Amino acid sequence: MMATVATSLDLKVHPGRMWEALKDAANFMPKAAPFFWKNWEVLEGSPSTVGSLILLTFNPAARGDLSIKVRVTEFDEEELYVTYESLLDSDPLYKQLRVTMSIDPGQDEESCVVTWSVFYEPVGNQGPPSKEARHRLLREMEAYLRTNDVYMNFCRTLSRG
Questions:
Q1: Phi and psi at residue 147, in whole multiples of 5°?
Q2: Per-residue pLDDT tens over the stretch 44-88
Q3: Strands 81-86, 94-105: parallel, antiparallel or unpaired by DSSP?
Q4: What's CA 142's distance to the chain center, in Å?
Q5: What angle separates helix 15-23 from helix 25-32, to the nearest 10 degrees?
Q6: How many Å apart are CA 44 and CA 124, to the nearest integer?
Q7: Residue of 82, 81, 90 whose CA lies nearest to 45
Q8: Phi/psi at 55 (nearest 5 deg)?
Q9: Does this model's pTM top 0.85?
């Protein structure tokens, strides 16, 4: 049976800048959150193309010596969200795992709300990534963008009504 958890945090990063970083997830994620990711290797396509295949290698301290293959199943440039789904038999802890990261405007124009939703069917009693790990990942992404002069090309207006 599929279960769902979601974490939303207000981050002090312009939503367009966060989106630019997520579009370049293969480069961004291992740099922003090395405690969680060792590497994202694009096997087919690109991180911003539906159907692309990516090999995610976790930091051994986070999930042991584990790599899983995911496919980009949704990528919406207008609504600012991306969904990754693990391939069957790729993850020993989950029969199915689908992660969506979405970005909404924050309280001011230099902030955003990032929501990390996890839909999963565990093997045995395995739960989702811990709430602490999800919060830490989002805070590490924020800290990386606030301390590094990257993904500054976000000259677009976010207008959703």
A1: -110, 0
A2: 999 899 999 999 999 988 877 889 999 999 999 999 999 999 987
A3: antiparallel
A4: 12
A5: 110
A6: 31
A7: 82
A8: -100, 115
A9: yes
Q: What distance lies between CA 99 and its chain's CA centroid? A: 7
Q: Is the dihedral of CA 33, 74, 16, 159 positive or negative?
A: negative
Closest CA to 29 of 144, 151, 160: 144
Domains and CATH numbers, the chain: 3-146 (3.30.530.20)
| pLDDT-based confidence at residue 159 (cuts at 50, 70, 90) | very low
Name residue 73's amino acid: T
What are the DSSP E strand ranges found in the chain? 3-11, 37-44, 53-58, 67-76, 81-86, 94-105, 112-122
The amino acid present at 87, given as its one-letter code, is L
Tokens 């999800």 belong to which residue? 134
Query: Which residue has 């124009």 as its token pair?
Result: 109
- Of residues 94, 85, 92, 90, the one with CA closest to residue 128: 94
What are the tens digits of pLDDT across the range 91-145?
Answer: 888 888 999 999 999 999 899 999 999 999 888 888 887 889 889 999 999 999 9
Per DSSP, the three-state class of 110 is: coil
Inter-residue contact 57 to 77 (CB < 8 Å): no
